Amino acid sequence: MPPRALWKGSISFGLVTIPISLVSATEPRETLAFNLLHRKDRSRIVEKRFCAKENVEVPWQDIVKGYQYAKDQYVVVTDEDFARVRVPATQTFDIRRFVPAADVEDLYFNYPYYVTPQAKSGVKAYALLRDALRETKTLAIGTIVLRQREHLAALEPVDQALVLTTMRYAHEIRRPKDLDLPASGKGWTDSEMKLARQLVDTLAGEWDPSEYRDTYTDALRKTIEAKVDGKETTAPEVPQPARVTDLMEALKRSLEKRPRRLAKAAGRRRSAHKARVA
């Protein structure tokens, strides 16, 4: 079954309009859900909606959304109010600018969606925009309204698809200038950097996301399954990291543990150098 479209609208750039749908680009892994229980008899703890003033439970049909504009002062916001503030971006991703992809820092990106064309008339324009972004190595930047909020977003090609990723606004980003950080290019010696680069080479490899798993959740699930079967589990011993206060010594000892991979890394560098010379 194809994934459900979360939003339908269009992409607009210049006089070109492409009818599209957005589909979540991520599929959440089955997570472990926990309930609150009464320790005494293990019965469920039920959360109820109470009116603080009247101390009575309130049914859903009597609950409204309110915005607090002063202490204990609220104004009710209805569905009609939300509908009145529709902006052009409500049903359209309007491309405002094409920017070099390499210029946008990763920390601006938030949540990705696959973009699919919604009509045969939009297929050609969809393919043209996707391939133009790839050839020019640019991102299409614009705004879109999702879940009653206007988001900054970027459009980029990924394989055969266009992916729209919501972004954080500049004022939402905490800049590193406010942190106590060491200056770049200082604070280490050339010898330390040489060893650090060698250590990086020993761990270098191709990006393969399938190599990584949520091992914590896997272990927790096994513990829960054992408890269901009435079995007791023991916590594994966690090795303590070696305490090495001398940076050069720590780098050398790290390299000694990976001599085989280091030799392979050196071989890759020699091959790459020969290829460049040739």
Strand elements, count = 11
Instruction: Give a short account of the largest sheet.
Output: 7 strands, mixed, barrel
Mean pLDDT: 84
What is the distance, rounded to the nearest whole angstrom, between the alpha carbons of the first and last residues? 51 Å
Q: Helical stretch count?
A: 6
Produce the secondary structure layout.
Layout: E1 7-13, E2 16-24, E3 50-51, E4 56-57, E5 65-70, E6 73-77, H1 79-84, E7 92-100, E8 109-117, H2 120-136, E9 138-146, E10 149-158, E11 161-167, H3 190-202, H4 215-228, H5 247-256, H6 259-277
Parallel strand pairs: 1-7
Antiparallel strand pairs: 1-2, 2-8, 3-4, 5-6, 7-9, 8-11, 9-10, 10-11
Helix pairs in contact: 3-5, 3-6
Q: Care to describe what's here?
A:
With 278 residues, the chain is α+β, with helices and mostly antiparallel strands. The chain folds into three domains: 7-28 and 85-172, Beta Barrel (Ku70, Chain: A, Domain 2), CATH 2.40.290.10; 50-81, no CATH class; 182-203 and 243-278, no CATH class. It has six helices and eleven strands. The strands form three sheets. The chain has a seven-stranded mixed beta barrel. Strand 3 (50-51) and strand 4 form a beta hairpin. Helix 3 (190-202) packs parallel to helix 5 and helix 3 packs across helix 6 (259-277). The chain is extended and about 65 Å long. The protein starts with 6 loop residues before the first strand and ends with a helix. Residues 272-278 have low confidence and may be disordered.
